[in-house]
Design a protein that fits this description.
Layout: H1 25-36, E1 41-44, E2 47-50, H2 60-73
Antiparallel strand pairs: 1-2
Length: 75
């Protein structure tokens, strides 16, 4: 799916999602998915977020740390 062809207004803004923390874990997950509709494609304010997975041994934490380091180095 090409992000350029996505209608941003049709996506749920993650800021509007409010999960009841008193629910059991499975119910919180269901509640989140019910509200966000597509947990792999949503908005975060003005940004569209698309989540994909790759066959790799690198963790999400490592990727995020690399991203932050690269952004800080560019400043």
């Amino acid at each position: 799916m090409d992000l350029k062809n996505i209608d941003r207004n049709s996506l749920v803004d993650i800021w509007s999602v409010n999960v009841d923390a008193s629910l059991p874990q499975k119910e919180r997950m269901r509640d989140f998915i019910r509200q966000v509709k597509d947990p792999y494609l949503f908005r975060h304010g003005k940004y569209v977020v698309k989540i994909t997975f790759a066959e790799t041994d690198i963790t999400l934490e490592q990727r995020l740390a690399d991203y932050v380091r690269a952004k800080c180095a560019a400043m």
